[in-house]
Amino acid sequence: MVLNIHPDNPQARHLQHVVNELRSGSVIVYPTDTMYALGCYINNKKAEEKICAIKGIDPQKSRLTCVCENLSILGQYANQIDTTVFKMMKRAFPGPYVFVLEASKKIPRHFRHRDTVGIRIAGNNITQRLVEMLGNPIASISLPFEENTPEDILDPERIDANFGKRVELIVDGGYGKLEVSTVIDASKGDGDIEVF
Question: Taking the model in full, what pTM does it have?
């Protein structure tokens, strides 16, 4: 199913429909400020495994990102954060960045095989409203772009043709972007930061 949502003024009833789908265990395709992504409710292990199958990655080695509403979630998902890193995050978010931090033990059990967690606050109206209404992060990873043409992952109609049978819902927020997030690894906790 494809659901059209206005990118500048997302319709509340459509957003609520997406939130209900996420809570029920659905895997969705949704727009971010970089490219379209696969997403699910972070507390749903089966949905995350389905995302990994679509992406073609091992769930035990996956690096799904926690797309959050704001930085207040950090205490729940990440351990102590260096002041310099926190200031960087405040300047970078919302935006096309993923900060890799040392993971907290409060992360859902199926996420605990990882010692780090990627945190993202996307600068996209639809995404921001979804995580706000959901009340929890969306576990997310970009659509598989290596084996697809740009049109296949930018145009919602082509996304539907390629992924519509593998996900429960595609959020059409307009033509996508072909950008990747900048990943900033601050997980060492000693002020050592890597950008890639």
Answer: 0.91
For 46, counting Cβ atoms within 10 Å of its Cβ (0-12 exposed, 13-18 middle, 19+ buried), the class is exposed
Give the C-alpha separation, 72 to 21, whole Å.
25
The beta strand positions in the chain, using DSSP E, are: 2-4, 28-30, 37-41, 65-67, 97-102, 116-120, 138-142, 169-172, 182-185, 194-195
State phi, psi for 99 to the nearest 5 degrees.
Answer: -100, 125
> Do residues 156 and 2 touch, judged by C-beta distance below 8 A?
yes
Residue 73's Cβ-count burial label (10 Å; 0-12, 13-18, 19+) is middle
Q: What is the pLDDT along the chain (196 residues), one digit of tens a residue?
A: 899 999 999 999 999 999 999 999 999 999 999 999 999 999 899 999 999 999 988 877 778 899 999 998 888 888 878 888 999 999 999 999 999 998 888 887 776 557 888 999 999 999 999 999 999 999 999 998 777 778 888 999 999 999 999 999 999 999 988 888 999 998 876 556 666 4
Q: Indicate the length of the chain as a whole number.
A: 196
Burial of 172 from C-beta contacts in 10 A (0-12 / 13-18 / 19+): buried
> Tokens at residue 36, please?
């379209």
| Residue where the block lists tokens 């509403």 | 69
